Amino acid sequence: MAYDYKIYGNAIPQCDVFLENGYTKEEMKLVWETHKILDPNIAVQATCVRVPVFNGHSEAVFFKVSNPSSREAVIELLLNAPGIKVLDNPDLLEYPTPVEHANDTEEVYVGRVRVQELAGDTWVSLWVVADNVYGKGAALNAVQIAQTLLNTNKF
């Protein structure tokens, strides 16, 4: 896809074509895939931005949880999740970036973990980086989901 703006050194808030609803096709794919894979009742709102890096997907992820939680509890959950590596130490400026963490790896790196109470709801914010070519692209993710379903007899 050619862009109407210079991409080098820039951030372009357009990934794919714009649809009638004002979202891009890539933004709507996040909605459609979440509904297809997880649950059609999950509310998803996304903005995709093209940033010129050689490799890797980076995402700012925000979600509401059902029960009050803490930063420590979310980090503990992530530390025990297979395929997740937590890099989150604000004092040491430790967080994942595509240059350092999205090359030839199957792991998904998570940092900038924040938990906030807003209007009686608990919200979690994360920064996520993954290698979308060698690692956690759609094909590997599909294989790992299938393996999990087979291993838990839910297939």
Please summarize what this structure is.
This protein is of the alpha+beta class. The protein has helices spanning 25-37, 71-79, 98-101, 138-151; strands spanning 57-65, 84-86, 108-118, 121-130.
* First-to-last CA distance: 38 Å
Q: Could you say what the CATH topology of the largest domain is called?
A: Dihydrodipicolinate Reductase, domain 2
Quaternary assembly = single chain
Q: Taking strands numbered 1, 2, ... along the chain, how are they ordered across the largest sheet? A: 1-4-3-2
**Helix coverage percent:** 25-40%
Shape: globular
Count all strands and give the number. Answer: 4
H and E string:
HEHEHEEH
CATH homologous superfamily title of the largest domain = Dihydrodipicolinate Reductase, domain 2
* Count of helical stretches: 4
Task: Compile the SSE list and pairings.
Layout: H1 25-37, E1 57-65, H2 71-79, E2 84-86, H3 98-101, E3 108-118, E4 121-130, H4 138-151
Parallel strand pairs: 2-3
Antiparallel strand pairs: 1-4, 3-4
Attribute tags:
single chain, alpha+beta, 2 domains, 4-stranded mixed beta sheet
Describe this structure in words.
- It is a single chain.
- It is globular and about 45 Å long.
- The chain has two domains: 1-52, no CATH class; 55-151, Dihydrodipicolinate Reductase, domain 2.
- The chain has 155 residues and is of the alpha+beta class.
- The mean pLDDT is 88.
- Helix content is 26%, strand content 21%.
- It is built from four helices and four strands.
- The protein has helices at residues 25-37, 71-79, 98-101, 138-151; strands at residues 57-65, 84-86, 108-118, 121-130.
